[in-house]
């Protein structure tokens, strides 16, 4: 670390440190539980309706929820051990397990997203469906997890446990109040070659490479969509149709919805997973030394909390962009059935007649990914 300055003095009070730890202890279990419920409902719903076995992309969407479910279940035990251990030596192994699991699930999430978008590009460009087979789907999932393991395995040797006052940006420069305070612990990377290698390796291979490939695929999808739109407009002109009528084509609208849904998946995934890998890599090269130690500590803790928000927006994204998902869940929720299927009207005799608004057979089923 560079020469000691006022930036390296941790100025928070003991009460502030304990308040941060209390927020950490309350927020993480709540996010773990909410995400667990959401993903278990999503997975159970797809299994119950056998949606996951209808096509490769439906299996991959199921795999996205399964990755986040594994992340939350596997994270719970080392997280509890980290809180219950007294010394940093005892919490080193829980930290190694915690960060390795987090990195592996993050890499599996982005790799699965890449495979979904590649499949979507293949379908929209060639207008052909990849034949689904259980063996092929299991093979894809195996490759995804093997790649994720390669991305995350260096974390095993580089992760350690440290108290708030022991992170390299603080060193021994703390206030007198903190010296006599029982400061909480967190997981950190060692400030040596192993920390630099693991943080750079994961950032480049586990996050940057899949995101770069995803961006390239989206550019190619946009190019194909533009060409298809031009062909559609020229066809509508030859048939004396206006452009608005051409854009109301069900295939065009379904492709547009799917594209926006995938974009939101990638944006939220990058928002929730990227901060940890970026901050760890910057800190391993001492690039945050000129920032106040309190700010660095807040960034580290917030980035760790952000990961647990992953997949929470997924049901809302499905609800907005997949009418079939919306109709199925409306039918599954009894509280929505009276409003979704019935409407009251007044007849000429002053009485109210309840008639079906639509049946389940007439629900709009849009094209799948």
What topology emerges from the helices and strands here?
Layout: H1 14-48, H2 56-84, H3 92-126, H4 134-152, H5 155-158, E1 159-163, H6 176-179, E2 185-189, H7 193-238, H8 243-247, H9 250-284, H10 293-306, H11 314-321, H12 323-332, H13 337-341, E3 342-346, E4 352-356
Helix pairs in contact: 1-2, 2-3, 3-4, 3-7, 3-9, 4-7, 7-9, 9-10, 9-11
Q: Can you give a write-up of this model?
A:
By secondary structure, the protein is mainly α. 67% of the residues lie in helices and 5% in strands. The chain has helices spanning 14-48, 56-84, 92-126, 134-152, 155-158, 176-179, 193-238, 243-247, 250-284, 293-306, 314-321, 323-332, 337-341, and strands spanning 159-163, 185-189, 342-346, 352-356. The strands form 2 sheets. Strands 1-2 form a two-stranded antiparallel sheet. A two-stranded antiparallel ribbon has the order 3-4. A hairpin with a 5-residue loop joins strand 3 and strand 4.
Summarize the structure.
By secondary structure, the protein is mainly alpha-helical. It has helices spanning 14-48, 56-84, 92-126, 134-152, 155-158, 176-179, 193-238, 243-247, 250-284, 293-306, 314-321, 323-332, 337-341; strands spanning 159-163, 185-189, 342-346, 352-356. 67% of the residues lie in helices and 5% in strands.
How are the strands ordered across the major sheet? Answer: 1-2
The number of helices is: 13
The SSE string, one letter per element, is: HHHHHEHEHHHHHHHEE
Total count of strands:
4
Which structural category fits the helices and strands? mainly alpha
Low-confidence runs: 236-246, 336-369
Shape, per Cα inertia axes? elongated
Q: Give the % helix.
A: 55-70%
Give Rg in angstroms: 25 Å
Mean pLDDT: 79
Straight-line N-to-C gap: 50 Å
Fraction of residues in β-strands: 5-15%
The major beta sheet can be summarized as: 2 strands, antiparallel
């Amino acid at each position: 670390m560079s020469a000691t300055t006022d930036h390296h003095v941790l100025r928070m009070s003991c009460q502030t440190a304990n308040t941060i730890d209390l927020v950490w202890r309350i927020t993480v279990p709540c996010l773990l539980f909410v995400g667990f419920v959401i993903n278990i409902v999503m997975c159970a719903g797809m299994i119950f309706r056998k949606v996951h076995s209808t096509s490769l992309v439906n299996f991959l969407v199921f795999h996205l929820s399964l990755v986040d479910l594994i992340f939350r279940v596997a994270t719970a035990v080392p997280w509890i051990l980290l809180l219950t251990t007294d010394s940093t030596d005892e919490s080193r192994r829980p930290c190694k397990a915690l960060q390795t699991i987090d990195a592996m699930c993050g890499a599996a999430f982005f790799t699965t997203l890449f495979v979904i978008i590649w499949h979507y590009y293949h379908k929209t460009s060639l207008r052909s469906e990849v034949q689904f087979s259980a063996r092929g789907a299991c093979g894809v999932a195996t490759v995804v997890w093997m790649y994720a393991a390669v991305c995350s395995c260096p974390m095993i040797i580089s992760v350690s446990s440290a108290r708030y006052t022991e992170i390299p940006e603080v060193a021994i420069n703390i206030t007198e109040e903190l010296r006599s305070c029982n400061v909480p612990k967190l997981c950190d990377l060692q400030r040596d070659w192993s920390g630099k290698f693991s943080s750079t390796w994961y950032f480049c291979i586990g996050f940057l490479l899949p995101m770069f490939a995803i961006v390239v695929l989206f550019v190619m999808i946009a190019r194909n969509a533009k060409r298809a739109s031009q062909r559609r407009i020229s066809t509508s002109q030859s048939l004396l149709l206006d452009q608005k009528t051409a854009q109301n084509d069900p295939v065009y609208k379904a492709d547009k919805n799917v594209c926006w849904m995938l974009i939101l998946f990638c944006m939220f995934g990058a928002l929730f997973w990227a901060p940890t890998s970026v901050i760890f890599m910057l800190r391993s090269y001492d690039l945050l030394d000129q920032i106040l130690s309190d700010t660095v500590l807040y960034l580290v803790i917030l980035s760790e909390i952000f990961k647990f928000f992953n997949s929470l927006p997924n049901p809302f994204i499905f609800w907005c962009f997949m009418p079939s998902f919306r109709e199925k869940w409306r039918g599954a929720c009894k509280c929505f059935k009276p409003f979704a299927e019935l409407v009251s009207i007044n007849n000429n005799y002053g009485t109210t007649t309840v008639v079906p608004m639509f049946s389940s057979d007439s629900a709009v089923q849009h094209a799948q990914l």
